[in-house]
Specification:
Layout: E1 3-16, E2 20-27, E3 32-37, E4 55-62, E5 68-78, H1 79-83, H2 87-103, H3 110-124, H4 130-144, E6 165-167, E7 172-174, E8 184-185, H5 188-199, H6 202-206, H7 210-227
Parallel strand pairs: 3-5
Antiparallel strand pairs: 1-2, 1-4, 2-3, 4-5, 6-7, 6-8
Helix pairs in contact: 2-3, 2-4, 3-4, 4-5, 4-7, 5-7
Length: about 240
């Protein structure tokens, strides 16, 4: 069996037999990896605690037919320990790893890996409000996947913005002349916040009001659910402040 090594973020785990686990990871260079970690549920396991969700690891694996096998693990960053201390942070991180799992496959996706890594690091350090970090991550992850939202010019006639109506099916804002019935309407502050979350302008994002954050979160959630097959189950548990 070929042996290979990569760095990865642990997305989720589930039990296998009496002492093993199947670990799903997003790696830097090998895309999504599903591997068996043998004996990690035993008390004396050398690396059981290193293969928990939100951990960043340097992992060595044997390639298998259906599942690879973990042979060695070293911790690179222990974000999980800080993330699980706060419920809002934990639920945001859970939504992020679920998104990463659904947007990636076994093809190399370095951008998605680095984006998730940065998001988890920001959550663990509480650099910004957890809801803002989550919404920024969702918009950027969807953009990398090919569904970049447009919060600038009209998605139909290209008239210069800002515009206040957002159409999910078009993936962007539309001007008053092109606005279809039922389009979501937002305030100028909400529109500015969405653009800031997408571009990473944290000065604007951090200064936003609770009302605009709530409105932006609703639009981001709807846009994410629209594009991600079977939706994101964890979003319903996210604690919004």
């Amino acid at each position: 069996m070929p042996l290979y090594r990569d760095e990865a973020v642990v997305l989720r785990t589930h039990k296998l037999g009496e002492a093993d686990r199947i670990v799903t990871m997003l790696s830097h260079y090998n895309g999504q990896i599903r591997a068996v970690a043998k004996g990690v549920r035993k008390t004396g396991s050398k690396f059981g605690s290193r293969l928990e969700p939100f951990m960043v690891v340097d992992v060595q694996l044997y390639e298998g037919k259906n599942l690879d096998t973990v042979s060695q693990v070293e911790t690179l960053s222990s974000y999980g320990a800080e993330i699980v201390k706060d419920y809002a942070t934990y639920t945001a991180a859970t939504a992020m790893v679920e998104t990463a799992e659904k947007l990636t496959g076994d093809v190399s996706t370095p951008q998605q890996y680095l984006l998730l890594l940065g998001g988890l690091r920001a959550l663990s350090r509480q650099e910004h409000d957890s809801s803002l970090i989550l919404d920024s991550y969702l918009l950027r992850a969807l953009s990398v996947a090919g569904w970049a939202p447009n919060f600038g010019d009209c998605a139909i006639c290209s008239k210069s913005g800002p515009h206040r109506a957002f159409v999910l099916q078009l993936g962007g804002v539309v001007c008053p002349d092109c606005k279809p019935a039922g389009a979501a309407t937002m305030s100028e502050e909400t529109a500015a916040l969405l653009g800031a979350l997408l571009s990473g302008d944290w000065g604007v994002a951090d200064a936003s009001s609770e009302g605009s954050r709530a409105n932006a979160a609703g639009i981001v959630a709807a846009y994410s659910q629209w594009h991600i097959e079977r939706g994101l189950k964890s979003l319903q548990h996210v604690e919004r402040t």
